[in-house]
ArsR family transcriptional regulator (Mesorhizobium amorphae CCNWGS0123), 214 residues
Amino acid sequence: MPNAHDVLFRTLADPTRRAIFERLCREGEQTVGALTSQSGVSQPAVSKHLGLLRQAGLVRDRHEGRQTHYSAQLGALSPLIDWTSQMAGFWETRFDELEDLLKRMDQ
Amino acid sequence: MPNAHDVLFRTLADPTRRAIFERLCREGEQTVGALTSQSGVSQPAVSKHLGLLRQAGLVRDRHEGRQTHYSAQLGALSPLIDWTSQMAGFWETRFDELEDLLKRMDQ
DNA sequence: TCAATCAATAGCCAGCAGGTTATCGATCAC
DNA sequence: GTGATCGATAACCTGCTGGCTATTGATTGA
């Protein structure tokens, strides 16, 4: 049972997939065809990536006739932001501890 | 030629490897033995992970006798932070554009 | 109605990534 | 000096992942 960080990191680790997500962030909603045309891979490959991005909550889809429009769900990135701040936080804490230690040694 | 984001995402995507990095962030410098004992995988596997983390600039090593101490290099996370802010930034920009459009339509 | 288009699915294949055991070099303890 | 310990490396195996082509289902337009 992978946690939220696992899913996000794994999903964004693939360059092709991340490029698709970046494009959706930059340019907003796009059809599968539009995304495929600039992805360098086949349409089924793009559909697979979009499926994984959707599972990760990073995009949502909207059906309109025979086209499917995808758009980025930016909120899904929060666990990533939380994780990095947490790591930074641990580091700060340890730094403070070191400071304290040095202060005590100084007395 | 993978860019900095590629390397970071790929390196942090593996749960075992990320757990090692998290532990180094939480608890500071650790020997390979200490890291192995709580990783659930063999010592060579841990060494391999540490090698990749080092290549990504996420950890540094310090040799002391026959032990090797590893510690987290928090600065290496900045490209990740930059990337997320950039994605958020794109989103904001598009939101502003939408706002402008609505404003112009209103006139 | 029938052909064409769009996107998803199925089925397959190749490469790689992460795991293992075995071994080696270096350092330490006795 | 010798045996034990630590960590890196070698060599290998396996499963998963990302790619492909072919096909299907749905929708559109002629």
